[in-house]
Amino acid sequence: MLDQSTVAIVRESYALALSRRPCLMQDFYLFLLARHPDLEPLFPRSLARQADKFSGALQLLLSYANAPDDLSRALRRLGRDHQGYGARPEHYPAVIDALVETLAIQLGRDWTESYETAWRGLLGFVGAEMLAGAANAAA
Ligand code: HEM
Questions:
Q1: Per-residue pLDDT at 45
Q2: Does the Cβ of 44 fall within 6 Å of ligand 1?
Q3: pLDDT score at 33
Q4: Exposed end of the chain (fewer CB within 10 Å): N or C?
Q5: Which domains does the chain have, with CATH numbers?
Q6: What is the DSSP string of 37-100?
Q7: Is the CB of residue 43 below 6 angstroms from any atom belonging to ligand 1?
Q8: Ligand 1 pocket, mutate which of 53, 72, 96 (most atoms under 8 A from CB)
Q9: Mean pLDDT across the chain, nearest whole number?
């Protein structure tokens, strides 16, 4: 479950980072692929489009936070689709770390412990739901 304060902190920090760096999500993919070049073949489309989609999903999930059943269903479906994209359980920590670090680098001195905790809480929840969806699909 996502609590409202986690969602509020993520929203606030995401808005701040995006206002300073509109192409933040592209930075995230570049950072991810620089660190894990083995993941590059999984992403056939342009990184800009991929970044838009990821960003759209993040906004959507923040807006769904009051409807946990719908959110869980949507994330499980996304996780099932990700199996088809070649995403494996061990890739999730790599993606989560790359996103948290991109945000931390962007916000610099304004990055706080509470931002770190809220983002890791949110993305841990998202990853767990997506992996549960993928596991169900595989069963
Ligand atoms: C942390 C949670 C994640 C979220 C919220 C997320 C979000 C998304 C979204 C919204 C899309 C577009 C979906 C669509 O077009 O149907 C997508 C596509 C994709 N994601 Fe993720 N993703 C996550 C984790 C991962 C992981 C761990 C990998 C593995 C490296 C991954 C690899 C991909 C690939 C390969 C595509 C499809 C690219 C394409 O065919 O254009 N994602 N992701």
A1: 75
A2: yes
A3: 95
A4: C
A5: 4-138 (1.10.490.10)
A6: GGGGGG--S-HHHHHHHHHHHHHHHHHTTT-HHHHHHHHHHHHHHHHHHT--TTHHHHHHHHHH
A7: yes
A8: 53
A9: 93
